[in-house]
Amino acid sequence: MPYQVTAQSLLAAIVLSILLGLGCRSNTHQQNKSDPTQARMETLAALYARYVGRHQGHLPPDETAFKNFISSEGKSLLAQKGISDVSGLFKSDRDGESLVVIYDTAGQHREFVPDLIVAHEKTGLAGKQLAAFASGTVKQLDPAEMDAAKSTNQK
Hints:
The chain is built from six helices and four strands. It is α+β, with helices and mostly antiparallel strands. It has one domain (7-153). The chain has a four-stranded antiparallel sheet, sandwiched between helices. Helix 2 (25-34) packs across helix 3 (36-54).
């Protein structure tokens, strides 16, 4: 039976995303200037949260549905961030590979909570991978931290 996100948990995740974004805005903005992958992943996480909010708490079912949503509902955010290519959001400049985005595939219904990884690099750089969280933050994780974060995603 699919898990539905309650209005309270969805609202809490959105409020937390906004507060974290406001609290870290200037510092994060400085980091993003030197790392375009991190900046795109933050945009991807924001669009992911918007998708969940507009689809009664359901995660995107697949890449096509998510890209279609971004193309139609994310135009203003993409323009604000200077992003013209939706497909570019899904690739890491650091490792040259496509990002691993978490979709709600059959039997994997997940709760949308701030510590849910919504996307991460496949390989990363120098033994560390960037991971985008539902809260809107992007963190660089070593293998142990990535394993711990992925185990949280399984809950």
